User: Which sequence fits this backbone?
């Protein structure tokens, strides 16, 4: 069945196409500008130096091919509501089960990490030396989750609207940074510590690869964090109006956005502040505005970073509920998760996902070293997300083999086809393998097989039984 008049005349038993082109474009931008850019770039610059620009370009190119493959797959069959349906249909029920639950856990882990980030950013407004009490942290975390839960419960359009404005804030902040930085470069601004703003700062402090190959490879670990959520366009596409027109627009704009938001903003940052003077644990974006002598800059940028984290959580809550809905429809999650409210929102999935994210906030009290715990959580979520990206590429290879007639008819073919799919898979495997280089990310890599064991128990212990019972 293809979507025709049903786009407007839906029953309440299906997700509705209520996201406009404007929403889909901004969800794509919001997904491409992660908290990793605002907060993680300081650490990445200190690890890799100017070669960070090359790292973002390489990841950006690979993500573009991933999104083109995903775009062709989604448009080949509008019954695909997410990657779960795709992998279930093209690879088999085990792949669908793995993708759905892995993507769900990845976003729950990211949501937990985002909650601690919110607490950290709010500490900015406290007097020096003061910290939130555990009760205060719990209240703030609960408040954030409840606000986003309410926004997502009302309508899909409201999610799109919220994400639209979150993305606008991020775009305005980056454009402001590029403009202020460009002015400082052209006027050869001199900072209090004697650094003169100039494009030559990029290559005149040890060249483009000052930390050698090891530094270059280490940079990939954090840079890949910044791209988590880019595949959200695929989840949102199931609820977008006129996907044949709007999805290609959103996907094709990804390379331009990576160059504009990542590369251009970091060129400006490293021209004004030489890479070897960037403080790893501070946002170089905030530091640049402070150097420019704009007193309210730190406050403004802190609000931007806060909105970026809330945007990440908003995306997570949206996509986890849709994943649970897809899993329930395939009989891979409890049937209750497949029920929609009158406004076509998967309410039970939303409530369950939010409860799990809140459970993560409670963990803050039991894990003494929260930074270590959440480095573990975010790295683990990257491993899970990248494994889902690999399965999307495998699904594309299967689609080309099993349904060549659909590929022939496609008006949005993936450039490079099957060959590029293998290149992208090898690249993503490489990004997981280099996690061995750093001790903190190595721990996550060693812990990750536990998830495979949990999934195997879930699949063979519950889902397989359900399949066997339904076939008798």
Assistant:
């Amino acid at each position: 069945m293809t979507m025709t008049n049903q786009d407007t005349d839906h029953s309440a038993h299906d997700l509705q196409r209520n996201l406009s082109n404007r929403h889909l474009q901004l969800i794509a931008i919001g997904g491409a500008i992660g908290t990793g850019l605002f907060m993680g770039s300081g650490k990445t610059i200190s690890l890799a130096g100017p070669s960070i620009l090359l790292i973002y370009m390489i990841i950006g190119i690979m993500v573009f091919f991933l999104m083109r493959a995903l775009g062709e797959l989604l448009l080949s069959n509008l019954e695909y509501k997410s990657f779960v349906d795709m992998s279930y249909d093209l690879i088999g029920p085990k792949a669908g089960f793995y993708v759905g639950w892995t993507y769900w856990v990845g976003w729950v882990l990211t949501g937990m990490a985002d909650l601690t980030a919110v607490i950290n950013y709010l500490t900015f407004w406290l007097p020096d030396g003061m910290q939130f009490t555990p009760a205060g942290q719990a209240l703030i975390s609960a408040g954030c989750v409840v606000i986003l839960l309410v926004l997502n419960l009302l309508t899909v359009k409201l999610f799109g609207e919220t994400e639209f404005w979150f993305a606008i804030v991020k775009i305005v902040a980056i454009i402001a940074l590029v403009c202020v930085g460009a002015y400082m470069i052209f006027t050869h601004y001199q900072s209090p510590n004697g650094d003169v703003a100039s494009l030559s700062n990029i290559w005149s402090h040890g060249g483009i690869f000052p930390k050698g190959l090891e530094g270059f490879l280490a940079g990939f670990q954090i840079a890949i964090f910044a791209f988590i959520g880019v595949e959200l366009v695929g989840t949102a596409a199931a609820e977008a109006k006129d996907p044949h027109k709007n999805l290609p627009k959103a996907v094709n704009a990804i390379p331009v956005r990576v160059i504009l938001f990542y590369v251009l903003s970091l060129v400006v940052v490293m021209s004004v502040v030489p890479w070897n003077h960037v403080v790893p644990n501070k946002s170089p974006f905030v530091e640049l505005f402070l150097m420019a002598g704009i007193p309210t800059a730190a406050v403004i940028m802190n609000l931007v970073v806060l909105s970026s984290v809330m945007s990440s959580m908003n995306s997570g809550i949206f996509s986890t509920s849709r994943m649970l809905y897809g899993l329930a429809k395939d009989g891979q999650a409890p049937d209750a998760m497949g029920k929609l409210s009158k406004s076509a929102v998967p309410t039970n999935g939303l409530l369950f996902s939010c409860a799990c994210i809140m459970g993560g906030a409670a963990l803050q009290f039991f894990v003494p070293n929260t930074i270590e715990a959440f480095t573990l959580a975010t790295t683990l979520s990257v491993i899970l997300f990248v494994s889902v990206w690999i399965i999307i590429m495998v699904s594309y290879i299967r689609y080309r083999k099993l349904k060549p007639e659909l590929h022939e008819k496609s008006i949005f073919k993936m450039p490079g086809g099957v060959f590029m799919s293998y290149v992208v898979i090898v690249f993503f495997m490489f990004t997981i393998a280099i996690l061995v280089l750093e001790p903190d990310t190595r721990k996550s890599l060693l812990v990750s097989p536990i998830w495979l064991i949990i999934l195997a128990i879930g699949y063979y212990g519950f889902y397989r039984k359900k399949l066997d019972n339904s076939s008798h």
